[in-house]
TrEMBL record:
Domain Enolase C-terminal TIM barrel: 1-151
Enzyme nomenclature, EC number: 4.2.1.11
Record protein name field: phosphopyruvate hydratase
BP term (GO), one: glycolytic process
EC class name: lyase
Length: 154
């Protein structure tokens, strides 16, 4: 099915403790599809380090309010990037209109953000903040497009 459809990303493709399954999934699909660990890593650098060493995926979902501090959040992003992985900065359920994740995604140069469909104010606030950042950056702003998936062979 992965070769029959234009799938670019799979989030939480397997159970959070199925490390062997994640390794196999990454071995089979990891050069073509972004395999994002959310429950697998829970924005935790110890779990992420294990995943990097075992090649359990090629991307991490970053939820700043899941791990607790911006220091821990940026450490997880940097660890993923240094391993050649993507980091997807994400909202959580029960989200507010706070737009910090937009600034975090741009400031940490992740190129990827997950904020849901552009409906309801808590989601549109994040997209509006991205537009404001783009305006502030002017010609320095760059839309990565498919280049955001820099670790895939396409």
């Amino acid at each position: 099915w992965a070769s029959s459809y234009p799938i670019i990303s799979i989030e939480d493709g397997l159970a959070e403790e199925d490390w062997d399954g994640w390794q196999l999934l990454t071995e089979k699909l990891g050069d073509k599809i972004q395999l994002v660990g959310d429950d697998l890593y829970v924005t935790n650098v110890n779990r992420l380090s294990r995943g990097i060493k075992s090649k359990a995926s090629n991307s991490i979902l970053i939820k700043p309010n899941q791990i607790g501090t911006l220091t821990e959040t940026t450490a997880a992003i940097k660890m993923a990037q240094q391993a050649g992985w993507t980091a997807v900065v994400s909202h959580r359920s029960g989200e507010t209109e706070d737009t910090t994740i937009a600034d975090l995604a741009v400031g940490q140069n992740t190129g990827l953000i997950k904020a849901g469909a552009p409906c309801r104010s808590e989601r549109t606030a994040k997209y509006n903040r991205l537009l404001k950042i783009e305006n502030e950056l002017g010609k320095k702003a760059h839309f990565a497009g498919m280049q955001a998936f820099y670790n895939l062979k396409r």
